[in-house]
Amino acid sequence: PLLQAMEREISAAFDSGEPEDVLSRAFKLTVTREDISTLQPLGWLNDRIMNFYMSLLVERSKKEGYPAVYAFSTFFYSKLSSTSHKAVKKWTKGVDIFKHDVILVPIHLRIHWTLLVVDLREKTIKYFDSLGQKGDHICKTVLKYLEEESKEKRNIELTASEWTLHSMGTEEIPQQNNGSDCGVFVCKFADFISRDKPIIFTAEHMPYFRRKMVWEIIHQQLL
Question: Could you list the residue range(s) of the whole structural domain that residue 70 is in?
Answer without folding.
Answer: 4-219
